[in-house]
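Hi support team,

I'm filing this because I wasn't sure whether my run with flavin-adenine dinucleotide finished correctly. The job status page said complete, but I'd like someone to confirm that the output block is well-formed before I use it downstream. Pasting the exact inputs I used:
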Amino acid sequence: MDEGPPHVVKIERVVRETPSIRTLVLSEEFEFRPGQFVMVWVPGVDEIPMALSSRVSISVQKVGDATEALFGMKPGDRIGIRGPYGNYFPDRGEILAICGGIGAAPLLPLAMSDCVNTFMLGARSEDELPFIDILDECTNLLVATDDDSLGYSGFVTDLLDDTDLVDLKAFDQVCVCGPEVMMKVVLDRLVAKDMAKKGWFSLHRYMKCGIGICGSCCIDPLGICVCREGPVIRGDLLLDGEFGHYKRDGAGRRRMI
Ligand SMILES: Cc1cc2nc3c(=O)[nH]c(=O)nc-3n(C[C@H](O)[C@H](O)[C@H](O)COP(=O)(O)OP(=O)(O)OC[C@H]3O[C@@H](n4cnc5c(N)ncnc54)[C@H](O)[C@@H]3O)c2cc1C
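And here is everything the job wrote out:
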């Protein structure tokens, strides 16, 4: 783990994944394991956590100031990178990946290393499904869209109800990233099948330092820092806590999910 100052890297290329998601291809490669993240310094704006979507890229969805600034960057622009930090998804056994929208970013490299047997990807509509061509090449891809524009009509978690499509019991690990409401539904399904320990959830929490010092990403009731002991947390550890209910903002105030 690199705890030094940010490496300044150049943006070599920008790929339009969907109307709201861009991949920034960087001038430097990073050694990492799928699920790890970097702290991205956006000059003059902020420093924010981002998963590595490959050894040389981050994929960003604009939701606020820093992500909007990244989204608007052009080849030749510079950003700072600290990390990679945190733990990573398991890569052994039969793996089911479940994600929504930009949640596919940390799971893409797991799929590209041929570790994922079945990949469930959901989004509001067909044009908001990121990485669909590449995922289709390297996994058994199941798609769901809220507006019925491609694949199953409904939420990605509804796919779990179709036992002809996917039998949860057949998997050794279930790796999940996406909106927390969606991840909570997955955890509830795993609990119902007594499989909470097989679920691995990548949590998005407000992070300042990224290295376990400031405490802004600590979660209740465990008190662990998501940046250091996560971001990938095993399902049984998320029961009876804040997961799926609230998260803290930059000032430490609870915000309902
Ligand atoms: C480990 C980790 C990996 C991540 N990977 C990616 C990624 O690959 N691609 C990507 O686009 N985003 C990723 N995120 C989320 C990203 O860090 C936030 O979207 C970003 O910090 C928002 O900053 P902003 O200035 O654009 O928005 P802000 O103005 O700070 O916030 C805008 C909105 O986004 C919400 N928000 C702020 N911080 C977070 C956060 N950490 N998680 C979720 N929502 C947040 C706020 O509550 C608010 O509603 C990741 C987060 C973590 C913790």
